[in-house]
């Protein structure tokens, strides 16, 4: 065999143990499939199948067909034997990062052979380094970034859609690299320390070490991406591993999944050791130590460890602020630290003494950007990359254009009398167009039925839905049609309960339960929930909590998370004609009765009221401006208020009695947070009024120094002017989008502060795309008012994105304003619509 005896033995033991927990039906199904495959497959392939199952969540066995795992195993063995890239990598690297079918929480698919067949001739004769670079051009030819909902589409879904958010781009990219035999993994910063966001990208293994790159974002060098500077400011960067791996720092375990610490590749780090003792000075073993990052006005636990027999838990982290939370049993305490100041943190395990009803200010400091592993391409490499990237973008755009057949779409819409909304659905469906047209042409259902079910789906669903799911839903719910069509289609016919992959389940459910059970469920929907909880358990150790077990799988293996059970409840109810849903605010399982949705879950009554108050001129948003958490078992569980509605200056919510903590924060331009927290208790039936407030900073605390890379713009004669030239003196650089509101707003602020802008000693520089911008009435007025303004020209690509990313502002929003104090040294930036930008610019220029 091509695999070691140790790995084979371990995989067989884990596979057998998993089978014994999969339920008798699934166990026999798997044993039969394996026996059949053994007739034609090699021992190496059969080992690979078992290894994949042994190192995957039980939900993958429950949700996906055996043939998908067999295909992945076949291709993995083929790569190990034939790929110039996969032959010699260490065994654990190969198994986890070439052969493994799962990347993170995405929907699985059988894509590896397809991607290999497309790319093999293009890359197999290249060095591993060059193959990585070339493959990312192909990735860009096929997928680009676009914000979507939080369901992670499969790699094939992204490929056939030609776009995805960063988690989907990176999932696609990792699958592509694994398909050609190059070890790859998805990398995440769970929360940035310097801004309220997160990001995902790709690492590849080459020349016995890991390198990073942006998913579908080609460069001519490795260890470069728009996030290079940002990642150097991270407190933690991690990846997931589903199998056994050596030489990695494990920072958390979620079920059978390990979270690995990958920060050292990106940032200056240090090791922080937390030592936990009791009040008598004894070392405490198995205390839970959580390392938290303040982000979105909430403390996010980025790593969770247990103390060892020495009472210690250690973490490699960045040079910034961390919240250390320790608990064991009913005792808990926490402490905010600034990691550059400490190596060891000693915690005495005793309950914190909390001062209620008082705002307490604190500061969370983001690490400085200190790139440890970035590579700068040469000018020639930059120009070559831009040419190839432009070509890749053109190929992708043409591919997208070819996906849509306007004539076919218009024909089916007109023939059956569909609304214009259906035409727009078809336009958005990308490569799923023909499947949807075939469904819309299926005369087994009325046009109204087909239109209504399609309109219950999300935009993403329309790109990858199997239309047989829609046919089953319509066929098996006809007898339940009611006068309230909105309830009928949204909460009985619609196949989606939450963000799970869509699947057929209704016929299975009808066959699974007896007539007596189905009658009982229809008479009392709460009995569905009782059945689920009586018959389906949850073993977290063999699952990855981010993945749901689909309805058929849950009924078969009888193992499902709470979210999966709720999805199953909705599936059973809708199959039996009972309108049901998962509450969009709190995910509770509910059924429709007497004009309202009723939960089937036993909950504490929210008989208390909290009223948040604000000033008239203030704007407060739940995430990022404030959050509230309830103390449960020694930890604050953040409440979800995704649909908060302010009534004038008040926001009122219903809560249970208990101890609460409110956090507000003020994100400064330099990335630091000035934050406040407020603790209070609320008793049964009590109403609490709470005036929100923020901790404000002065100007000097808001700014930082950022070195800019050299960039080019052009003068009116087309001559190159370097960024270092236009920033020799103090300068305000403005990339303008004339005629658009955010730019107009900034120009109006300049006019409102005419005297201030005339008096500033800073050079004011307008940068526009071409001379036609100067014909805009507002631009002309400002130039006439301030004749000393310098004007340069720029295509905005790549300067706006590169410079905005460098300054940690949104590259997709104009105008982009950067204030520099000396050559290529920036202290402040903003992009898009920002009230008071003019005043801020003047204040900054006056202080330097």
Overall description:
- With 848 residues, the protein is an alpha+beta fold.
- The chain contains 31 helices and 34 strands.
- It has a six-stranded mixed beta sheet, sandwiched between helices. The chain has a five-stranded antiparallel beta sheet with strand order 16-25-24-21-22, with no helix packed on it. A four-stranded antiparallel beta sheet has the order 11-10-13-14, with no helix packed on it.
- The radius of gyration is 29 Å and the shape is globular.
- The N and C termini lie far apart (70 Å).
- The relative contact order is 0.07.
Layout of secondary structure:
Elements: H1 5-20, H2 24-37, H3 43-54, H4 58-63, H5 66-82, H6 91-99, H7 112-123, H8 128-142, E1 144-145, H9 155-161, E2 163-164, H10 166-179, E3 184-189, E4 199-206, E5 209-213, H11 228-231, E6 238-241, E7 250-254, E8 257-261, E9 270-277, E10 288-295, E11 298-306, E12 312-317, E13 321-328, E14 331-338, E15 344-348, E16 359-364, H12 379-403, H13 406-416, H14 420-428, H15 433-440, H16 447-454, H17 459-464, H18 467-475, H19 485-493, H20 506-512, H21 515-523, H22 526-535, H23 551-557, H24 562-575, E17 580-582, E18 589-593, E19 596-599, E20 608-613, E21 626-632, E22 635-638, E23 650-655, E24 658-667, E25 673-682, E26 687-691, H25 699-702, E27 706-707, E28 712-714, E29 720-722, H26 723-726, E30 731-735, H27 741-752, H28 754-759, E31 763-768, H29 777-785, E32 790-793, H30 799-806, E33 816-822, E34 825-831, H31 837-846
Parallel strand pairs: 1-2, 9-15, 20-26, 30-31, 31-32
Antiparallel strand pairs: 3-4, 4-5, 6-8, 7-8, 9-12, 10-11, 10-13, 13-14, 16-25, 17-18, 18-19, 20-23, 21-22, 21-24, 24-25, 27-34, 28-29, 30-33, 33-34
């Amino acid at each position: 065999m091509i695999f070691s005896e140790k790995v084979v033995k371990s995989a067989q033991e884990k596979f057998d143990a998993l089978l014994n927990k999969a339920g008798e039906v699934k166990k026999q199904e798997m044993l039969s499939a394996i026996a059949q495959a053994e007739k034609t497959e090699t021992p190496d392939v059969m080992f690979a199948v078992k290894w994949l199952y042994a190192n995957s969540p039980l939900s993958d066995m429950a949700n996906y067909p055996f043939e998908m795992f067999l295909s992945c195993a076949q291709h993995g063995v083929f790569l190990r034997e034939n790929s110039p890239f996969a032959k010699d990598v260490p065994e654990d690297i190969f198994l986890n990062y070439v052969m493994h079918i799962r990347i993170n929480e995405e929907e699985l698919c059988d894509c590896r052979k397809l991607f290999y067949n497309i790319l093999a001739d293009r890359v197999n004769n290249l060095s591993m380094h060059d193959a990585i670079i070339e493959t990312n051009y192909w990735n860009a030819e096929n997928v680009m970034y676009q914000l979507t909902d939080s369901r992670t589409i499969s790699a094939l879904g992204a490929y056939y859609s030609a776009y995805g958010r960063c988690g989907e781009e990176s999932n696609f990219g990792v699958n592509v690299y694994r398909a050609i035999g190059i070890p790859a993994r998805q990398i995440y910063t769970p929360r940035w320390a310097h801004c309220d966001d997160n990001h995902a990208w790709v690492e590849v293994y080459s020349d016995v070490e890991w390198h990073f790159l942006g998913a579908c974002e080609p460069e001519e060098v490795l260890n470069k991406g728009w996030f290079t500077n940002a990642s150097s400011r991270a407190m933690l960067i991690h990846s997931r591993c589903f199998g056994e791996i050596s030489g990695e720092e494990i920072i958390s375990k979620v079920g059978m999944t390990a979270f690995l610490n990958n920060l050292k590749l990106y940032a200056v780090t240090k090791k922080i050791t937390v030592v936990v003792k009791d009040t008598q000075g004894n070392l405490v073993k198995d205390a839970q130590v959580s390392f938290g990052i303040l982000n979105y006005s909430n403390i996010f636990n980025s790593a969770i460890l247990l103390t060892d027999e020495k009472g210690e838990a250690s973490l490699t982290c960045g040079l910034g602020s961390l919240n250390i939370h320790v608990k064991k049993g009913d005792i808990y305490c926490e402490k905010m630290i600034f990691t550059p100041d400490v190596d060891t943190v000693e915690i005495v395990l005793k309950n914190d003494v909390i001062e209620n009803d008082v705002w307490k200010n604190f500061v969370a400091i983001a690490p400085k950007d200190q790139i440890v592993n970035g590579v700068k391409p040469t000018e020639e490499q930059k120009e070559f990359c831009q040419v190839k990237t432009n070509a890749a973008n053109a190929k992708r755009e043409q591919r997208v254009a070819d996906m849509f057949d306007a004539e076919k779409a218009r024909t089916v819409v007109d023939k059956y009398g569909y609304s214009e909304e259906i035409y727009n659905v078809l336009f958005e469906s990308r490569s799923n167009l023909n499947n949807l047209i075939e469904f819309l042409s299926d005369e087994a259902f009325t046009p109204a039925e087909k239109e209504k079910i399609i309109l219950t789906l999300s935009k993403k669903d329309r790109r990858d839905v199997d239309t047989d799911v829609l046919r089953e839903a319509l066929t098996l719910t006809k007898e339940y049609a009611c006068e309230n069509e909105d309830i009928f289609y949204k909460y009985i016919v619609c196949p989606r309960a939450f963000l799970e992959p869509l699947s057929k389940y209704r016929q299975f459910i009808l066959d699974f339960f007896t007539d007596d059970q189905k009658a009982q469920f229809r008479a009392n929907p709460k009995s569905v929930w009782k059945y689920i909880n009586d018959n389906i358990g949850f073993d977290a150790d063999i699952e990855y909590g981010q993945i749901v077990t689909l309805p058929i799988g849950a009924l078969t293996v009888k193992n499902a998370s709470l979210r999966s059970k709720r999805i199953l409840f909705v599936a059973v109810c809708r199959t039996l004609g009972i309108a049901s849903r998962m509450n969009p605010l709190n995910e509770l399982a509910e059924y429709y009765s007497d004009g309202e949705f009723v939960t089937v879950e036993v909950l504490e009554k929210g008989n208390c009221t909290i009223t948040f108050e604000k000033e008239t001129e203030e704007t407060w948003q739940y995430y990022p401006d404030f959050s509230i958490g309830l103390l449960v078992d020694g930890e604050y569980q953040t409440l979800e208020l995704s649909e908060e509605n302010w009534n004038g200056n008040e926001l009122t919510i219903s809560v249970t009695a208990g101890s609460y903590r409110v956090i507000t924060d003020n994100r400064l331009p330099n990335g630091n947070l000035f934050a406040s927290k407020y603790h209070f208790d609320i008793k049964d039936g009590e109403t609490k009024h709470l005036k929100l407030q923020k901790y404000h900073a002065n100007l000097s605390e808001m700014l930082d120094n950022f070195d800019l890379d050299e960039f080019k713009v052009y003068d009116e004669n087309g001559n190159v002017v370097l960024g270092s030239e236009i920033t020799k003196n103090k300068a305000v650089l403005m990339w303008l989008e004339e005629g658009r509101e955010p730019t107009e707003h900034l120009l109006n602020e300049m006019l409102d502060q005419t005297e201030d802008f005339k008096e500033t000693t800073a050079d004011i520089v307008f940068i526009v795309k071409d001379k036609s911008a100067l014909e805009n009435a507002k631009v002309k007025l400002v130039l006439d008012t301030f004749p000393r303004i310098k004007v340069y020209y720029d295509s905005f690509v790549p300067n706006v994105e590169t410079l905005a990313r460098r300054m940690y502002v949104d590259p997709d929003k104009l105008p982009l304003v950067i204030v520099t104090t000396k050559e290529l040294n920036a202290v402040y930036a903003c992009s898009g619509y920002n009230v008071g930008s003019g005043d801020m610019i003047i204040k900054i220029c006056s202080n330097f």
